[in-house]
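Subject: Sanity check before I submit

Could someone independently write out the structure tokens for this chain? I want to compare against mine line by line before I put it in a report. The sequence has 114 residues.
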Amino acid sequence: MIDTQAPDLAGTQDPLSPTWDELREGGCMVVDGKFQQLAVYPGDGGHVVIASADAVSDGPHFIVIERDDMPKFIAALTKTQGEAAERWAAIEQEIEAITAAMGDVASGEVGSHH
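---
Independent answer below. Compare away.
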């Protein structure tokens, strides 16, 4: 469990926020890259906190989701993930079609009569 009484993430935010290292140790990191961090952890009031930072931000940003809003939030994430997967599948099909057409042009098969 994350101790929300820990020092803050950037030295300038809420003094009750856990550090990135504490979030890592607690298994709360969703994205932990060189240029982007995203963590989800429980707040003291039964809410969920999302902490994020990237290479261009001036510190972490926090989103607090109240417990009553969590079902809507989870439903929206699930719906959006499905839509994103569908969009990516359509893009992959377009890439495959373009790649196949380019292969046909390179092999001289376009417009050829067999």
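---
OP: Matches mine. For the report I'm noting this point. The beta strands are 29-32, 36-42, 48-54, 61-65.
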